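Contributing new records

If you add data, match the layout below exactly. Sequence lines come first and carry their own label; structure lines follow with theirs. Keep one chain per record. Anything else will be rejected by the validation script.
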Amino acid sequence: RAAYAAAGGGGASSADGDSVQLSSEGLNSARHVRPEGALPVSEARMLKDEVGALSQRLDSLMERLGIPKAQDPEPQPTRADTAFHAVPGLAGSPGAGDGQDVGKRLRAAEVDEGIIKKLLADYGSSDRSLPFVEWLASRIPCSGDGGGDAAGGRKVMFLGPTGVGKTTTIAKLAAVQALLEHRNVLLLTSDTYRIAAVDQLRTYAKILGVPLEVVFGADSFPSVLDGHSEADLVLLDTAGRAQRDRRSLEAFKTLYDAFAPDAVHLVLAANMKYRDMMDVVEHVPDIPVSHLLFTKLDETVSCGAVFSVQQTLGRPVSFLTAGQNVPNDIETASGRRIADLLMSSDRERRMA
């Protein structure tokens, strides 16, 4: 402590508002006070107690300032969960700080608490050769990693609750594939329930110059697909249904069996709560969901639910969307992108 004071520490305030003077002269004199022969024992004990209290307050202050004790240069863990608070490695992430706030950032992002504990325990038992954000990215599978086909095949089906933006997302994907990748795209829709749903997709199809077919029943698929054998990519839009409307949801199973898709993307809005997302998942009929697709990233201040549902289901993420612009507001998902969204604050994301 005297070395710190001699280096220039003149005074500071403790957490409780009392002023503590950090001068080498004061500390040295306090340490060398000894009871005189004429000094009463009670006063000597009082002086000793005051010096001890001052020492404890200085220890507490120096600990908060991050100054290690001279006699203990390598603090040893004193709590069972120390590993949760000693994760080095927000290095490389937006707003990177030291490892102490990893758990805090995960909680601020509203990641499920059980997932947070498992993450930090797994990282604590790893060799820690990567900064935490890079290690985290490596644990988020995405279908486009390594240049793979993010869509997952030629025939692709999209499911999701009402209002998540399936139709707009399909239009964005069709635009990218048709205009930028120069692929033959066929749009299909079975959404004959929502007012103007077919007209919305027909407008997109006309602008993009791609064919659109309306599927009124499962028996329509063979003739429709045979009539467009040249299509490189077939995207099927389905009607949004409330996850608790079980009778309507069962219709998806019939469509799935008839269409026989190569991939099924479950579309969820990023501004949904984790529990609501899992409720959707639990009420999806007996259809093997192969991919997760998240929309409306621009309409949420935290991405913890996105990460939590992916970790819970273990399915790869295919695409991320943010905004209504077609085709610009869509991107192929990557583990690093999701990790950065997760570990950065809302302010940092808006400044990026």
